[in-house]
Design a protein that fits this description.
141 residues; Aminopeptidase
Length: 141
Amino acid sequence: MLVKLLKRDIINHWGMIEESFKHAPNADQLYDNRHKIMETLLIGKADVWCTIRDDEIRTVSLTSMIYDPITLEKGILLYYTHALKPTEDIDWAEGIVTLKRYAKAEGCAYVVAYSKVPKVIEMARLVGGDIDTRMLTFKVE
């Protein structure tokens, strides 16, 4: 089951959340900015979601609301997800469905996610996600 953590839960589980940053695609950036991220989470500009199975936290995810300046649509950015423990396919699929339901309730037009992990991409495909569109990034030096 995917659940959104409350502020007190973020504080109580901060060590686990912070540790998960080390496994994100942009690990150095996240870990170096962990104090700013905690502030962002506690003021409600981003959210932490966890998959819980058998009374254990299995995954940690960060999301935030985004606004498309061209279409003026609101969406949810699934910034990253990290599996702390072995996670069943059904957990990934249910998590995506839960996030889509939450997005709809919040008036969002879409959920967008970054991933290069084949398993995550396959789960997205299985629940109807567009996996053909690519997010391209260019490092500015």
